[in-house]
Amino acid sequence: MAVVHSDAGHLPAPEKLVSIPRLMGAYYTEFPDTNSPDQLVSFGTSGHRGSAFLHSFNEEHVYAISQAVCDYRKQKGIDGPLFLGMDTHALSEAAFRSALEVLVANEVTVCIAPKGHFTMTPAVSHAILSWNAGKTTGLADGIVITPSHNPPQDGGFKYNPPHGGPADTDVTSWIQTRANEYLKDGNRAVKITNLSSARKSRFVSEHDFIGQYVDDLPRVLDMDCIRSAGLHVGVDPLGGASLAFFEAIAERYKLDLTIVNREVDPTFRFVPCDKDGKIRMDCSSPYAMAGLLKMKDSFTLSFGCDPDSDRHGIVTEKGLMNPNHFLACAAFYLFRSRTRWPKGCGIGKTLVTTGLIDRVAASLGRPLVEVPVGFKWFVPYMHSARCGMGCEESAGASFLCFDASPWSTDKDGPIMCLLACEMMAREGRSPSEIYADLTEKFGEPIYQRLDAPADSRTKSILKSITKSSIHMETLGGSPIVSIETEASGNNAPIGGVKVQTKNGWFAVRPSGTEAICKLYTECFTTNDELTAIQKDALSFMDDLLRT
User: Distances from the Cα of 424 to the Cαs of 233, 420, 528, in angstroms?
Assistant: First the structure.
């Protein structure tokens, strides 16, 4: 078991805070070494991420990626507006400016938030889908400048094509390759204009992301029911982009909603340290959410989002819900309440999300669609209503509108938070109480993820593993019922392996953003069996890496 840092759950000491002037200096004046793979553009599960201090997210990277996106748009004939958003990380605003200089120089029509407002990832996805609805030409796409819940010194760049969700691997590989070609040539072929000219350009216009998102909420949630229930709700935006959105939601729908922390500061000095002692704005972590947890008894229900608001954290009378637990409750509730969804509409989950959802799906007579890690895999299923909900164990999910049209094809923290309110308003009980009922019916899962260092060789072995190379017959003392190196829902490679018994499983895969491999384990029996599953999984890994 990993040791919890002594600073976990406590506000960071001044010496832990990032120096914003130093960070900005590094962003604008330091350059990547293009002979170092760690300093090139690399799109992981969701975009390129890095830090200016490590020469992995500097202005040169943003210039190169932005030009590559312009080239991709031109190649694919994407000529509608590009919705450009940013979260509250310090590097996000700097990168936003750099991207705008390139986009305008390439004569791309760019829609930005007014008055420098921050923009949630799901609001960009929703804007793209709203613009493209019913169109076959002049389609829009988008960019979100965000490293998600990563520490304050990090930056990130995500591209969302016209389908509104995260770009798939073919697209990101193309953009990554083209961007690195520009970097290695000193960005000499990148088109750039100055920021002042860009902002005044006819190619830039303001878009009311907040108004559009907030006004459209009754399409996806029963806002009248939520208001009528009179729930006293607490919200911690964790210094992120959701702050202004929740303010507008409370005002527009007359909700008894209290924002417990309105601070926005790129040092994130008001966010308690995470398990490892680092500042990380992870709304699924009880340590980062310690401030809101102390207030839980003051509210009927409370919740938070990460800086770009694509993740959710739900706090009930029992405390912070495990993301897997809430996702199972959400699936159970949605597929009983959304009566206009097609009968063949299934429940989508990544293969490392709890097996409790499998049991919920079976009880409701709904197809289960299991895909590899990454929300991008749900995009075609949500566009076609083959999935009513897509979710992943890292507290990310979205779901369809009442009429089965897509609301967002990217993860959406606020609608998941507000769904918890709707569930409580309609069911008359908290999500924790609903979860307790589910475990009575289907069994209570015990879930744990372990991380281990992984070099390039380890990652390569995991990605190339085949079923024929796996000779296990039992796991944790029980017969194995399936071994998968491709996801059952779409036959896409896992990049690792998942091994299942009747009541338990493990999956192992390399991280797309860190030098680690992730071992996920779950069972529906006892802690002893979970330990046995973990022991067998670790033995399997040792044998695999010795070959």
Answer: 11, 6, 35
